[in-house]
Design goal:
This protein is of the alpha+beta class. It has helices at residues 8-19, 24-45, 67-83, 144-147, 216-227, 245-255, 276-289, 320-333, and strands at residues 54-58, 64-66, 86-91, 98-99, 107-115, 126-134, 156-162, 166-171, 177-182, 187-192, 203-205, 238-239, 258-261, 274-275, 293-295, 312-313, 315-318. The strands form 4 sheets. The protein has an 8-stranded mixed β-sheet with strand order 4-3-5-6-7-8-9-10, sandwiched between helices. Bound molecules: 1,6-di-O-phosphono-alpha-D-fructofuranose.
Length: 336
């Protein structure tokens, strides 16, 4: 094994020197990195540490919290509060903004501490997702208003995937890089530099049990994929569904694909299923930075103006040509 490896710390320092920066990103990401390592450890110990099962409470979304949801949330809050980089934080698990006492930081952190947590008890991959925004001048970091910025304003975003290995995938707006946790040494090592998504793909991911709720545009797309080489697409498609967005996005980053969780007739009143600020925006930033495309079907995801912290949205992201095709189908459906 080569010891001439680039760790996440090296990478951030190199980036800092290259940009002539002040070390802001290094500081911002240090505590997130530690939080992800700690969560990885807890996920990995699973039943041995009594970490599986329900916590016995509901979160702000009205969903049953798992023990690991609660633990991961506490780890994220604690580690990032101690570091003092953030003026305020918002978590998918909390109703309002988490006030950071005495914080001098100029940044805001949004996170989903454990996404895909319904998969925990069956030992399928889960992940953490985060998004970093600047604190706008003149706004109180404990106010929801400070956080309600469209995704284009993110300064960094990433996720940790707790899978067969633990990875941290990151963008600071100049491409996407993936780091694998060396569990023995305790460091993230750059293993997937400059991740790029091919523009074309033969693979899609959607929860097909929701077909009866889909809009015609989504139904048409999936029908055409299923028809394979006998249909209008003239080639066969493969389908995957993990039910952990982090795992799906990671697969798309590694080998292309399109991921759909569209707004449909059943979830439309809420805006969709996935959360704009904690899931859609950070993932859309990563996908675009890797050369892919991310959309609601009718609008670029990163341009959606949030109106509330826990807003939900339809999500279509991945290989650029397939997402563009889905947008075209929505346009045709709308008579545009
Ligand atoms: P949980 O965190 O409640 O498991 O939700 C995961 C998620 O938000 C996202 O990661 C998945 O892509 C999606 O929901 C799975 O949704 P279905 O339960 O409809 O498959």
């Amino acid at each position: 094994m080569s010891y001439k490896r680039v760790t996440l710390s090296h990478f951030l320092l190199q980036e800092q020197r290259r940009r002539g920066g002040t070390g802001t990103f290094t500081t911002l990401l240090t505590d997130i990195r530690t939080a992800c390592k700690m969560i990885s450890h807890e996920v990995n110990r699973g039943a041995l540490a009594g970490n599986l099962g329900a916590a016995g409470a509901e979160n702000v979304q009205g969903e049953q919290q798992k023990k690991l949801d609660v633990l991961a949330n506490e780890i994220f809050l604690h580690m990032n509060e101690l570091g003092g980089s953030y003026a305020g934080m918002a978590s998918e698990e909390l109703e309002g903004v988490h006030q950071v006492h005495g914080a001098a930081g100029r940044y805001l952190l949004l996170f989903d501490p454990l996404d895909g947590s319904s998969n925990i008890d069956v030992n399928i991959s889960v992940g953490s997702i985060f998004s970093i925004l600047r604190l706008p001048d003149g706004l109180d970091p404990s106010s929801e208003q400070a956080f309600l910025q469209p995704g284009v304003q993110q300064v960094a975003a990433g996720y940790a995937l707790y899978g067969s290995s633990t990875m941290l995938v990151l963008t600071t707006g100049e491409g996407v890089n993936g780091f694998t946790l060396d569990q023995n040494v305790g460091v993230f090592v750059l293993t997937h530099p400059d991740m790029r998504i091919p523009a074309d793909t033969d693979e899609y991911a959607v929860n097909a049990s929701r077909e009866r709720y889909w809009e015609p545009a989504v139904r048409r797309y999936v029908e055409e994929c299923k028809a394979g080489k006998d249909g209008p697409r003239g080639r066969n498609f493969n389908m995957r569904w993990v039910a952990s967005m982090v795992a799906e996005v990671h697969r798309v980053l590694c080998r292309g694909g399109v991921f759909l969780y569209p707004a449909d007739s059943e979830n439309l009143a809420k805006g969709g299923k996935l959360r704009l600020m904690y899931e859609a925006n950070p993932m859309a930033f990563i996908i675009e930075q890797a050369g892919g495309r991310a959309s609601t079907g009718r609008q670029r995801l990163l341009e959606v103006q949030p109106t509330s912290l826990h807003q939900r949205v339809g999500v279509i992201l991945g290989s650029a040509n397939e997402v563009a095709r889905l947008e075209a189908y929505h346009g045709e459906q709308d008579g545009r």
